[in-house]
Write a structure and sequence with these properties.
Layout lengths: L3 E9 L2 H17 L7 H19 L7 E9 L3 E8 L19 H12 L2 E6 L5 E8 L7
Helix pairs in contact: 1-2, 2-3
């Protein structure tokens, strides 16, 4: 397998695109050797869903599209990035009892803590941002 693999898709900032982003990421990590019946695959699906949802819901129509990037480095680390063109970075919202949303980043941080992942946010040259999640790669190495 190559030392570095990449895949990306750009989708409209529409709620229907969240499911498409999840399907795309699932297809790619499966092609890279991750069994879709594993907890790691569920983690990837949930992270992509939450980040894509944030890109659609919290950009307030100011980002017409979002991009999902997947990178696999040396069969050791999977990086998931979701980019939108809105300048506001993710905020930690209080988990109020009656709050219907705002828990996506809490879910992502919890998943990362469980599997030893990292979160970072980087600005884009256009004024938006990319939220990156780095996870240990758990698929078997192909010979």
């Amino acid at each position: 397998m190559a030392d570095h693999q990449e895949a990306s898709v750009t989708l409209p900032s529409d709620p229907a695109s969240v499911a498409e982003a999840r399907r795309y990421a699932t297809h790619i990590v499966s092609a890279w050797g991750l069994s879709l019946e594993t907890e790691a695959a569920d983690t990837v699906r949930l992270i992509v869903s939450e980040l894509a949802t944030n890109a659609v819901q919290h950009t307030f129509g100011q980002s017409p599209t979002f991009t999902v990037d997947l990178r696999l480095d040396r069969d050791e680390q999977l990086c998931i990035g979701v980019t939108d063109s809105h300048p506001r970075w993710p905020q930690r919202l209080p988990a109020a009892v009656r709050q219907d949303n705002g828990r996506g980043m809490v879910i992502i941080r919890s998943l990362m803590a469980e599997c030893g992942g990292r979160l970072s946010v980087t600005p884009t040259p256009e004024g938006g941002k990319t939220v990156w999640i780095a996870l240990p790669w758990t698929a078997p190495v192909r010979k």
